[in-house]
Specification:
175 residues; alpha+beta; Nuclear Transport Factor 2, Chain: A; 4 strands; 44% helix
Length: 175
């Protein structure tokens, strides 16, 4: 009888050890995916802002964004975001981004992250073919500061941004 009790005692602690080990492994994968997504979203949103504000060529844009964004975003969504800035290029700007926590499980294929994005002190230069009028100077396009929902997808083990949706428009920061 003492051997049976000893075996139960040992098996109970082995079971607890295995459960704790599995929780640690899941937590490690969660931390890895969260850190990876944080980098992808931060770098991706920064590259997106640079490409939109600097009026880069299509080839340069695809080259810069293809490692961070899905082809669905680059060829369908991105072009509509650049339209207001087509005739302008940024001479200088300050960019601020705060990326939230990505609650993603190791086996997940998609997730969303909340991002607060701001462009501060935007100085633009007109690059259009016509001469810039006073009316155009007054109505230069402004960046939409806001909270965005960034949807990411995992394809072939790599996380990429698939869509960027404005959730809440923020008031511009006075500087």
């Amino acid at each position: 009888m003492p051997i049976v009790r000893l075996m139960k005692f040992i098996l109970k602690y082995i079971y607890v050890f295995i459960v704790v080990l599995m929780l640690c492994i899941v937590a490690a994968f969660f931390a890895y995916d969260n850190a990876y997504l944080n980098i992808v979203v931060r770098d991706g949103m920064t590259a997106r802002a640079e490409c939109i504000l600097n009026d880069t060529s299509q080839e340069t844009t695809v080259y810069k964004l293809s490692s961070l964004f899905s082809t669905n975003y680059i060829y369908n969504v991105y072009d509509t975001e650049t339209v207001p800035f087509d005739n302008y290029t940024a001479q200088s700007f300050r960019y601020s981004i705060n990326v939230g926590i990505a609650w993603v499980l190791p086996w997940s294929k998609s997730c969303s992250v909340e991002v607060e994005e701001r462009v501060l002190e935007l100085m633009q230069k007109y690059t259009g073919e016509d001469k810039e009028t006073d009316e155009m100077k007054k109505n230069r396009p402004q960046w939409v500061d806001g909270v965005y929902k960034v949807n990411c997808v995992k394809k072939n083990g790599v996380w990429k941004i698939d869509s960027v949706e404005l959730v809440e428009k923020l008031d511009p920061v006075e500087y």
